[in-house]
Amino acid sequence: MGRHFRVAGRLALKLEELGVSVPAVLRKAGLPQDLFEQTRVLVSTNELFALWHAIGAVSADALIGLKLGVEARRERFHPMGIAALSTENFVAAVKHMARFKKLTAPEEMPHELDDEEFSVSFRWLLSVEAEPQVMLDYCFAWMQTIAQHGTGRKVTPLRVEYVAQRPQMRAMERHFGCEVRCGSGRNAIVFRAADATAPFVTRNAELLDMLAPQFDAQMKLHATEDSFVELVRRAIQDRLTGHRPSIDTIAQALHMSSRTLQRRLQEAGYSFQRVMDEARHQMARYYLSNSVLELNEAAYLLGFEDPNSFGRAFRGWEGMPPNDWREMHRVAARV
Question: In total, how many domains does the chain have?
């Protein structure tokens, strides 16, 4: 399992087409303004959730997630989507996507087929909060898009289930063409078994065979990238003892030049500063949730000049002051 998600560059294009400012979204999410200009856009679970929360906050359209999940132009599909369309039916397509996700990202796609129904869900394994509703909308709309492109006809789900209450219920039902249930015990999109097992008109065994080696190589690349970034992050955390280690210090600890360290991080879609921020963020959460350290002590151990600097950084990471975050998690632990 990888520890990061790769965000498709087409997301920025779709946002712009739908009138959503990409720079505003990235600012709101606290992500680099050049995020979508990177060769491979890799984000952690927290960053992925922040990105989708920001999309929902910046857009004035309550259905923005659904609209982002609809794609009429197949040439814009991610290679994983093209490979999914090359399988024999929707069930096989979901199994293909689920395998890819499980191996390359901290995400699972639970799915179940019986005589009447085929249900698909999404599970983010490293999340500490509920997934953004906008992101769920996108995932469900994307499943319907795959089913419709594959069968070559309009596919209407039996129902869509949400745990949380949702506004614009009627509009959502018009979009999916089926009942939308809120207050359910799970988040899932449910199709008729007959639709899920109907042959794909896009079936292309030859193309799937050609893409298989590329996916295997990509999965190995993800594993290599994650292991190296994690290695750098741990090296930083080991040296966060009252001061912030420099890139030269970390490079020396890893027995390489600082230039080589920078290059390998860039190839993985990272910068040294970003790994540093992630390392401090992880340690901050650990100190606040698993110890009795005072805030000024935590700030010192994380290499901040003073508690105020730590507080500003933590609000950028979690959207709230460190004291509030600590109290919220203490209450949750007691419950």
Answer: 2
Answer yes or no: pTM beyond 0.90: no
Together in a domain, 281 and 138: no
Domain range for residue 245? 222-334
Tell me, yes or no, whether 301 lies in a domain.
yes
Cα distance between residue 40 and residue 233, in whole Å: 19
Q: Are residues 190 and 259 in the same domain?
A: no
User: Are residues 230 and 152 located together in one domain of the fold?
Assistant: no
- Mean pLDDT confidence for 186-194: 97
Neighbouring residues of 76: CB distance < 8 A, sequence distance ≥ 6: 10, 13
C-beta contacts of 159-164 below 8 A and 24+ residues apart? 159/190, 160/188, 160/189, 160/190, 161/186, 161/187, 161/188, 161/189, 161/190, 162/133, 162/136, 162/187, 163/130, 163/187, 164/130, 164/133
Note the residue count of the chain.
Answer: 335
Same-domain status, 68 and 179: yes
**CATH for 186:** 3.90.1520
Condensed to tens digits (0 to 9), the pLDDT of residues 7-16 reads: 988 899 999 9
For the chain, the farthest-separated pair of C-alpha atoms sits apart, in whole angstroms, at 63
Nearest CA to 5 among 46, 64, 63? Answer: 46
Predicted local distance difference test score (pLDDT) of residue 148: 97
Question: In this predicted model, what pLDDT tens digit does every residue of 126-174 receive, in sequence order?
Answer: 887 889 999 999 999 999 999 999 999 999 999 999 999 998 899 999 9
